[in-house]
Design goal:
CATH class of the largest domain: Mainly Beta
Structural class: mainly beta
CATH topology of the largest domain: Lipocalin
Number of helices: 4
Distance between the termini: 15 Å
Number of strands: 15
Order of helices and strands: HEEEEEEEEEHHEEEEEHE
Strand order of the largest sheet: 1-3-4-5-6-7-8-9
Radius of gyration: 20 Å
Number of domains: 2
CATH architecture of the largest domain: Beta Barrel
Largest sheet: 8 strands, antiparallel, barrel
Shape: elongated
Length: about 220
């Protein structure tokens, strides 16, 4: 918790007066990106792939929308920001304050870096592209999924209960686990495969499924 406080304080110190930068309409920034990993001075590193922190860059309006589904702000609080960018630098602004990063692409990843004096990198952030337009609030929008969650909370005598969102075969799916029984549903609530002991109707699931987001679990302590 102390590390999180220190990191948040450091981000505030990075916010400074406005900087002018030219835009580049050919940028690959446009679209949805999940924050995957954050490293601070090679000391504090956090895997964020299951935290569902979404950055959406609109290069037509130069608006960045940030959505955090966790207990602290890993880089920026949920909200809308203005940004301008060149081929390798982005300046994010809000309320006359700015945060400047160098950025680059490695494979499918987007990487942000902030450098101190003497070219020492103090913050590095890795993003992966959002592969599918999954629902932000599935329990509110999918009644059948919320019914499963309610059933799990009322189920006694079985501790292994989870609901996890994935992207599988280019569609958003929901894996439910009760004990050793695993079912994978599409957004309509239809079971598309089951994994149960010797039965596995989707043997490639864990090899190809991406964008893992834990929605409900009694196995770990989740962020509120």
């Amino acid at each position: 918790m102390k590390k999180i406080f220190l990191f948040t304080s450091f981000i505030i110190l990075l916010l400074s007066c406005n900087t002018e930068t030219n835009t580049d309409d050919t940028s690959l920034l446009s679209g949805d990106w999940f924050m995957d990993d954050l490293t601070y001075f090679d000391v504090f590193s956090r895997n964020l792939s299951e935290e569902y922190i979404l950055f959406t860059f609109n290069t037509d309006s130069n608006i960045l929308e940030v959505v955090n589904y966790n207990s602290y702000d890993a880089l920026l609080p949920t909200g809308e920001y203005n940004f301008i960018y060149t081929e390798n630098e982005i300046v994010i602004t809000r309320n006359d304050q700015t945060l400047t990063f160098n950025y680059r692409f490695e494979g499918e990843n987007l990487i942000f870096e902030h450098q101190e004096q003497d070219n020492i990198t103090d913050i590095e952030v890795w993003f992966t592209p959002k592969m599918q337009n999954c629902i932000n609030n599935p329990f509110e929008e999918l009644e059948w999924l919320n019914d499963i969650k309610i059933m799990m909370t009322q189920l006694e005598g079985e501790s292994a209960k989870q609901i996890i969102q994935f992207v599988y075969n280019d569609e958003c799916v929901y894996l439910t686990k009760i004990g050793g029984l695993i079912k994978v549903y599409n957004t309509q609530g239809t079971v598309i495969c089951e994994i149960n002991g010797t039965t596995n109707s989707c043997p490639d699931f864990y090899d190809v499924a991406t964008n893992r987001r834990i929605l409900f679990s009694d196995l770990i302590v989740l962020s509120e």
